[in-house]
Amino acid sequence: MKKIHLEQIDGKSTGYMGLIALLGVFVLGAIGSMLYMEHEGHWVSGMDNQIVWGLPHVFAVFLIVAASGALNVASISSVFQKKIYKPLAPLSTLVAIALLSGGLMILVLDLGRPDRLIVAMTYYNFKSIFAWNMILYNGFFLIVGVYAWLMLDRTVKQYSRYAGIAAFVWRLALTTGTGSIFGFLVARSGYDMAMMAPMFVIMSFSFGLAFFILVLLASYKGTGRPLGDVVVNRLRSLLGTFVFATLYFVIVYHLSNLYATEHHGYESFILLGENGGETYSNIFWIGQILLGSLLPIAMIYAPGVKNCRKTLAVASILVVLGGFAAMYTIIIAGQAYPLEMFPGMEVISSTFFDGATTQYSASLPELLLGLGGMAVTLIMIALGIKVLGFLPATLEDSVADPHHKAE
Amino acid sequence: MSNSDVNISRRSFVEKSATAAAALTIAPGMFLHTVAEAKPADQAVSSAVRWGMLIDTAKCASGCTACVSACNTENGIASHDRPRTDQQWIRKVTLRDKQTKHEISLPMLCQHCEKPPCVDVCPTGASFKRDDGIVLVDRHICIGCRYCMMACPYKARSFAHETVDATVDHQPRGKGTVESCTMCVHRVDEGGTPACVEACSEAEHGAMIFGDIKNPDSEISKQLLKHGGKQIRADLGLNTGVRYRGI
């Protein structure tokens, strides 16, 4: 294995500038949306007193979960000492930080009082998993930032493994915390399950890696740098494993719910679309299961596509879209299903929609806010690889493959 | 002892007896309003009391919304004719037993749990419980994340989705924060009764009793001892301060 050379990209091409400009437009759209929603109040969004977390949260939680997963490549390199992933470890830290930044931006801008961010940073209720998450997010930036520095600065490189181990432990805690935001909600049928935490961890592996693969393929194609099949195929089979593992967790989650009679109502809502759950059921089956899980698995393991980059790119896009569908199902459908306050009773009338399924439809400002968060992520990555040498100059097989033998 | 002495004593006895009988007759009704003794303003809230409510669904009239109107007036809650995003601190719900078809009507409001999930999840501590059991939102440090609304089993909380126009001095409210029933804490601290309870009594339904559930001599404690009072979603173990009869 030859020495890896990390090198900044030029970042002067029209394509690069055009990309930054386009992403900038999306960021402006998000800022405009935020100002509109804050000025008018949240009633102009699709959210209400029944669906309190809407599309912005779908984007935000997806990006936060993916952030932790994008760090996989670096973890496998540092913690598990797999040399093939080593050249990609710095890029992995950049993508992780960028994803978390985009996700948190959305979360903060959707607050009822985003101007009180300082309050959120100075008042802590340590019984709240949400407060713990704020510490975990800030710590993630710090630890992964230090980890990236230790990898990029040759004078301190020998310490990078320790930072890598710390980052690995921290990101597991972070996704456990994110999953627990939902797992700890005792009153709602769709949540209240400790399994939410490990399910979010395994989802992060899958969504984060899919996003990382897309960044890798796009940046090497965009810069015309050589990218060998060995690295790409290793990532391909890793993604296949993670998508399988995620699907397994989703199946166990629903089986557990199906066993408990009290959750039958929720399961028939999600799985069969009963009680006004048609849309949510379709998003689950078509989005999360068919497009987001089964199709990518078929595309990854199908014979004859072993070295096909396009198939891998499409499979990764599907995993990302499936990730959004999964978050939509968990966050939106979980709230849309009515709270069971009076077992054995039916609600005849209520001014507050008790016992009624909520049909949520996102507004344009919410969509723009979510897309703006993604744009922030992509801008950070694009600028990051221009300013610092995150991207190896070449990843052709003779460089990247530790077992490569010169012919 | 002379005859006149006897007569005076007899008259005095009759008068005193009549007064006592009148007091005994009126007192339970009086207690609905006066059980809450005013605490001096400089004295901290004490856990020696726990404010609670007992709601009798048999007395709660279907179609009557006196409690809701009183709450809205008292706390300056105005509708924007957008029911999905309007704030509601108290609402009327009509329920029917799936098996027996028996219908009941009841007001739903913050249940003022002893172990409130909203307080557990609030990242900044804006959701808090006073020592006397009243659960409140400190709207100066609420960041509007709505996690408490996700956590509340009773959908008791509303988000201020738009500018709040009709604020009243004792109830500062504002766009972008979460709010819910305060059990009319401003009245209670001055020895008063929540507006909804008062309105229910004035409407001659008397379906709501307010008082200190730690004081065995309070009307609410006596009623709870005699008839019991169920919690909504008792399975969650939250020990609610609001109890119901007939659910």
Can you walk through the features of this model?
The complex is a heterodimer of chains A (407) and B (247). Chain A is built from 14 helices and one strand; from the N terminus they run H-H-H-H-H-H-H-H-H-H-H-H-E-H-H. With 407 residues, chain A is an all-alpha fold. Chain A has one domain (14-342, 368-400): Formate dehydrogenase/DMSO reductase fold. In chain A, helix 2 (55-70) packs across helix 12 (309-336). The radius of gyration of chain A is 22 Å and the shape is globular. The two termini of chain A are 14 Å apart. The mean pLDDT of chain A is 93. Chain B is α+β, with helices and mostly antiparallel strands and 247 residues long. Chain B has a single domain, classed as Alpha-Beta Plaits (2-Layer Sandwich). Chain B has a three-stranded mixed β-sheet with strand order 8-1-9. Chain B has a two-stranded antiparallel ribbon with strand order 2-3. In chain B, a hairpin with a 5-residue loop joins strand 2 and strand 3. In chain B, helix 2 (66-75) crosses helix 6. The longest helix of chain B is centred in the N-terminal third of the chain and has 32 residues, at 3-34. In chain B, 46% of the residues are buried. At the A-B interface, helix 5, helix 6 and strand 1 of A face strand 2, helix 3, helix 4 and strand 6 of B.
CATH class of chain B: Alpha Beta
Beta-strand residue fraction of chain A = under 5%
According to DSSP, the number of beta strands of chain B is 9
Q: What's the domain count of chain A? A: 1
**Class from secondary-structure proportions of chain A:** mainly alpha
- The residue-averaged pLDDT of chain B reads 88
Task: Tell me the number of structural domains of chain B.
Answer: 1
Using a beta-carbon cutoff below 8 angstroms, give the protein chain pair with the largest interface and the number of residues from each chain: A-B, 48 and 58 residues
Specify the overall morphology of chain A. globular
Largest sheet of chain A: none
Spatial extent as radius of gyration of chain A: 22 Å
Architecture per CATH nomenclature, i.e. the level-2 architecture of chain B:
2-Layer Sandwich
CATH architecture label of chain A = Up-down Bundle
What is the overall shape of chain B?
A: globular
What is the CATH topology assignment of chain B? Alpha-Beta Plaits
CATH top level label of chain A: Mainly Alpha
Helix fraction bin of chain B: 25-40%
